[in-house]
Design a protein that fits this description.
Layout: H1 7-17, H2 29-37, E1 45-51, E2 57-63, E3 68-74, H3 82-96, H4 101-109, E4 110-115, H5 120-125, H6 146-158, E5 162-168, E6 173-175, E7 184-187, H7 199-215, E8 223-225, H8 235-241, E9 245-251, H9 261-280, E10 296-298, E11 300-307, E12 312-322, E13 325-336, E14 342-349
Parallel strand pairs: 3-4, 3-5, 5-9, 7-8, 11-14
Antiparallel strand pairs: 1-2, 2-4, 6-10, 7-9, 11-12, 12-13
Helix pairs in contact: 3-9, 4-9, 7-9
Length: 351
């Protein structure tokens, strides 16, 4: 599990390669399309994969010349953009440091296919679903949505050994056994209801162990394990079942980081470590330490008002697009005894 990627190296590197044209939670095709078009054509092969239900472009990027095939996609849920930002940070790093050992080993050992924004309609509307109200992450069997078909066709044609499925998780999640938010959570999806430890799941877990080992050096006890409950129609579960080891990265909350700019950095760290680890290892059999990663729990509200003489009140931020502006407002979610919950922000009233 040793790695030559170190936290001091990453901390010095990241400000230099962060893609500053992307910021905040609302990331749309109009934000990323110019960046895609300006990618170094000697490094990235850019292809128009197809279009969305509302005829927006969906791009596929290819890079690397190696034999290990890796597929990555982001924003299959339109309102989950942290992974997309991390991908464009990764692109800048790969382009700016082509002679670095980390980059050369990834590109020489791997062939990588990336769909940086699978759901451009949902991204513009800032919705989880696509424009026909289909959750692409629950459409792996029915394949109702054209976006789901594009993803599955890409998978079948490319036949990757490993996949990285990039998502965001809600601010409600904490790390079991701590008082910390789950800043990054990982999952090796189950292949069927019994959650059996198949050879593919063990290999997926092995890569997650490497990513967790790196993150524990910079955000100790802020990494969780997403529930491995089997979802028969989910993308990760079905891709894993088909023999494509699928690593789910869930970007969560970090203190005072509602724009998820710190979290994108840790997302980038995770993704880079995962790619580098796959590129430089052939034995992915060790899996036991995966279960040392604590489970996610539902510990948090965004804000809790604690009162001395009346019921406490819990609030969550609700994000919407109103008049083409990103608006986040607090909505009351619960009232009563809240000692078993924690607020990312808590206000104590003396009455």
């Amino acid at each position: 599990m040793n790695t030559s990627i170190t936290i001091p190296f990453l901390e010095e590197l990241y400000p230099k390669i962060k893609e500053d044209k992307l910021f905040g939670k609302w990331v749309t095709l109009s934000d990323v399309e110019p960046l895609i078009q300006s990618l170094n054509k000697e490094l990235f092969q850019v292809e128009l994969l197809g279009t969305s239900e509302e005829d927006r472009n969906i791009y596929k990027l290819k890079l690397g010349t190696g034999t290990k095939k890796i597929m990555i996609w982001s924003q299959m849920h339109g309102n989950e953009s942290t992974g997309t930002k991390a991908l464009f940070d990764l692109f800048k790093f790969l382009d700016a440091y082509t002679e670095h050992e980390i980059v050369s080993s990834i590109l020489n050992n791997c062939e990588i296919t990336i769909i940086p924004m699978l759901n451009p309609d949902g991204s513009l509307a800032y919705t989880r679903v696509n424009s026909k109200n289909v959750d692409l992450n629950r459409d792996a069997v029915a394949l109702e949505a054209c976006e789901s078909k594009l993803l599955r066709n890409t998978l079948d044609a490319f036949n990757p050994e490993f996949c990285f499925n990039l998502h965001d998780q809600r601010t409600i999640f904490g790390v079991e056994g701590t008082q910390n938010p789950a800043t990054i959570s990982f999952l090796a999806p189950s292949e069927e209801e019994s959650r059996a430890l198949t050879p593919g799941r063990k290999e997926t877990m092995n890569v997650i162990i490497a990513m967790n080992n790196l993150l524990q050096q910079v955000i100790p006890n802020h990494v969780g394990r997403y529930t491995d409950e089997f979802y028969p129609t989910a993308t990760g579960d079905n891709f894993q079942k088909l023999g494509h080891n699928t690593i789910l990265i869930e970007a969560g909350h970090y203190p005072n980081d509602y724009n998820r700019e710190e979290v994108r950095k840790f997302n980038f760290y995770s993704l880079l470590e995962g790619l580098y680890y796959v590129a430089n290892n052939n034995d992915f059999s060790a899996y036991e330490a995966y279960f040392d990663i604590p489970n996610n729990n539902k510990l948090f509200f965004d804000v809790i008002h604690r009162y001395k003489n009346k019921k406490d009140e819990a609030y969550q931020y609700e994000d919407k697009i109103i008049d083409n502006q990103f608006v986040s407002t607090l909505q009351k979610r619960q009232e009563g005894e809240l000692n078993d919950h924690k607020g990312h922000n808590e206000i104590v009233f003396e009455y």
